[in-house]
Amino acid sequence: MADAVRSSRKGSSTFEVVTKSVEETQQLGEQLGRLLRPGDVVGLCGELGSGKTTFIQGLAKGLGIDPGAVRSPTFILMREYPAPVPLIHLDGYRLEGAPSAVWLDVEWVFDPKKVTVIEWADRIADSLPEAYLELRFSHKTTNQRGISVIAHGSRPEQLSKELAGKTQLSR
Questions:
Q1: Is 82 exposed, middle or buried, given 0-12, 13-18 or 19+ CB atoms closer than 10 A?
Q2: Engineered SS bond to 62: which of 34, 126, 154, 168, CB 3.0-4.6 Å?
C-alpha cells in the first residue's frame, strides 16, 4: 500500500501518503470512506488530474456507494449519492471565493446527516466549516500522487490519526 510520513503543523495532525497507482489512490479513499460518519466534511485541493475524483470514487465505495457512479460534478457543481449515509460531492473549480459560493445552501451542503466532500475546496475556503479534513494532492510521477492530510478540528484530528494508522508509515 501507500507509504506515509507523519509530521505536525500548528497542533493539527498532518501526514503525507504517496500512492503509486490509481488503485492505491482509490484504496486510500475507501479506507477514509469507511471511517467517515454523518456530518464529516472533507476538502480536497490539488491541480487538475492529481487524483481528487479517483480518490472520491474510493471514498464512495467505503460508504457503500458504487464507485462507478461517481463522476466529477465540474459542470453541474454538485451531486448527491444516496446511501445509508448520503454523500454530497461538490466541485468548487468554477467558484472563486465566498461571493461565488453564496448560492450554496450551506445547511443542505453541510447537513449533519450526510458526508460532504469538496473538490477544489481552497476556492471556497471561507465557506468551509471550522472542522474539516483537508487533503492536498500533488503529482510525484506519472502514476504516483502525494496526498497530504491536514486536520482542522477535533473530529478531523481523530480521522487523520485513524487513517494514518491504516497506512504503512515510513519516516
A1: exposed
A2: 34
**How many angstroms separate the CA atoms of 127 and 26, rounded?**
27
What per-residue confidence (pLDDT) applies to 52? 87
Which phi and psi (to 5°) does residue 44 adopt? -110, 135
Residues in the chain predicted with pLDDT less than 50, given as ranges, are: 1, 3-11, 97, 99, 102, 169-171
Would residue 72 count as lying in a domain?
yes
Report d(CA 132, CA 121) in Å as an integer. Answer: 10
The predicted structure's pLDDT at residue 56: 92
Determine the Cα–Cα distance for residues 80 and 120; give it in Å rounded to an integer: 17
Task: Domain count for the chain, please give it.
Answer: 1
**Residue 150 within any structural domain of the chain:** yes
Judged by DSSP in three states, 88 sits in strand
The CATH number of the domain where 71 resides is what? 3.40.50.300
Residue 171 lies in a domain: no
The boundaries of the domain holding residue 17 are 3-166
Q: What is the pLDDT of residues 61-91, one digit of tens each?
A: 999 998 888 877 555 677 888 999 999 988 7
Is 101 strand, coil or helix? helix
Distance of CA 165 to the CA centre of its chain: 17
